[in-house]
Amino acid sequence: MAGRIALGLEYDGRLFCGWQTQPGGCAVQDALEAALAEVHGAPVSTIVAGRTDAGVHALNQVVHFDAVNDRPESAWLRGTNALLPPGVAVVWAKQVSEEFNARYAALERAYRYVLLNHPVRPALLAGKVGWVHAPLDQANMVEAAAHLLGEHDFSAFRAAECQAKSPVRQLRELNVVRHGDFFVLEFRANAFLHHQVRNMVGALVWVGLGRRSPAWVKEVLESRDRSQAAATFAADGLYLSAVRYDPKWGLPATVDRSGWAFAGAAGIMPSF
């Protein structure tokens, strides 16, 4: 396949310094482009649906690149995976129209935050879940989350280094579900600002701990002042869980391969 190729990826964010290429070659993009270039026999430049930070994982990341040399789909899939380091894998590969753009054609993005609420820190799931040792009040977190739904100026939940032209985003879904000792927070929006999800998680945790009232979240949102909000929460439990596109592009359906770790705990996928 020559032309524009779309790929679905999953990766363990602990093993990389984020998505975006770095001089030291420590990013997911560096590893992927090096493997693709070897399969392709020429340099490859990828465009991604969502640039994740260091420590943030992906269940369904989407990228595209332009190939000038013909390769079968199996080469982009199995050939690339044979050359990738542990912790990142191509899940699917598909030739797409040259009009497709992994970033700009995305209609919605979804993130999942998995939080262990238990007195003892995680061991087997270290780096894969966030952790709060004191009990959380789910009802108060749900009430607080409702204030964030809709289209707002999310400046109070935006990192100082965020490069987005506008702080306005439309948060279409925010679920706070408890499964035993796990809280699973599902976020769905047209797009997200830098650190927006982690900053919202931090605020909801403060409410869950009783440090602030649910109404405080609305006050912070309306203040548009980052200094009024909670600290940015750990990246450990954050997953880019899905990216939605118009069916006309013919991309494979979103698949949750987190399996034993989170599929049973979360019980849901984004309602795309």
UniProtKB/TrEMBL annotation:
Amino-acid positions noted as binding substrate in the UniProt annotation, renumbered to this chain: 111
Segments forming domain Pseudouridine synthase I TruA alpha/beta: 10-104, 144-246
Assembly and oligomerization: Homodimer.
UniProt name for this protein: tRNA pseudouridine synthase A
GO process annotations (BP): tRNA pseudouridine synthesis
Active site: 53 (nucleophile)
SUPFAM superfamilies attached to this UniProt entry: Pseudouridine synthase
NCBIfam families, A to Z: hisT_truA (TIGR00071)
Reactions performed catalytically: uridine(38/39/40) in tRNA = pseudouridine(38/39/40) in tRNA
Function: Formation of pseudouridine at positions 38, 39 and 40 in the anticodon stem and loop of transfer RNAs.
Family, per entry: Belongs to the tRNA pseudouridine synthase TruA family.
Domain of life, source organism: Bacteria
GO MF, one example: tRNA pseudouridine(38-40) synthase activity
Swiss-Prot/TrEMBL keywords: Isomerase, tRNA processing
The species this protein was found in: Sulfuritortus calidifontis
One Pfam family in the UniProt entry: PseudoU_synth_1
InterPro entries: PsdUridine_synth_cat_dom_sf, PsdUridine_synth_TruA, PsdUridine_synth_TruA_a/b_dom, PsdUridine_synth_TruA_C, TruA/RsuA/RluB/E/F_N
Enzyme class of the recorded protein, top EC level: isomerase
Source lineage: Bacteria, Pseudomonadati, Pseudomonadota, Betaproteobacteria, Nitrosomonadales
E.C. code: 5.4.99.12
CDD domains, alphabetized: PseudoU_synth_EcTruA
